[in-house]
Design a protein that fits this description.
It contains 11 helices and 9 strands. By secondary structure, the chain is an alpha/beta fold.
Length: 269
Amino acid sequence: MSGAALCKRILETPMKKIGIVGGIGWRSTVEYYAEICRRCEERHIAKGGMGTAPMPEIAIESLDLATAFAWLGTDGDEGSWARFDEYHRAALRRLEASGAEVALLAANTPHHRLKEIVRGVGIPVVSIVDAAAQEAARVRARIGARQVLILGTALTMDSDRFRKGFAKHGMEAAGPAHEVERAATLQLIEELQRGQVEGMAERVGSLARTAFTGQFRGQPLVSLACTELPLAFPQMRSRASFEAGGVVYINTTAAHVEAVMEAANPGAC
C-alpha cells in the first residue's frame, strides 16, 4: 500500500473514543477538550480534507477538586489513599462503561497514584508523567539538558514516582529545594485556578530561574507539572515544549494531549 493510500486509510479510520477525568481543575479540563478538537481540525486541513473535520467522541467525568484534595493520603500508609484512589478509579470505570476506549486523568497530581488508580480498569490510561518525560528527553537531544525542575502541587514536587518517571528517560528531576520556592509555586497555582493570568508568565519565569539555578546547572529546564501552570503562557498552549525568558518549559498538558491523540489514533500521519 502506498504512503498516500495509508494516510487516507488512517484519516478515514475513526479515532477511538477518548475519556477524560476532569474537574481537577476545570480550567485545564477545558484546555484538554479544546486542544484535542483543535488538533483534529489542524490535521484534517493539513491532509487536504474538505468540509467538517472528523472529531473523536469524547466523554468527560468532571470530579470535584476540593473532594480530591481532601482525600489525599500519606505515602507509606496505603489505607490513607483508599478514598482518593477509588474516587478517580470510579470515574475511569464510568468512562469505560460509556464506551471510552482510551482515557486520561487531566491533572498531574493523581498520577502519583496512577498504578493503584487503574487497577481493575479495562481501558488504557495515558500517563502524563511518561508524556512529559519523553518530551524532556527530546529537549535533551536538542540542548543537552539532563536536569529538570518540577513545579506543581506539593505532592507532585515531592513525588518519587515523578522523579523515577523522568529517570527512565535519562533525566534527573526534582522539585524546588527551598520551602519559599515551593510556597510561591502553590500560590501561583491557586491564582491560576481562579483565572488570574496577567503577569503570570513573568512570575513563573522568575521563580523557575531562581529555583533551577539554586540546585542545577545549565540552561533551566522546567516541567510545568500542574495543568494550571501552562495557562500562564496562553500563546504556547499547543507546544509540548517551548522557551520563554531563557527557560525551556515542558508543557505537560500539551505533551499529554499529544500522547492521548497517538493512543486514540496510532500511526496517524
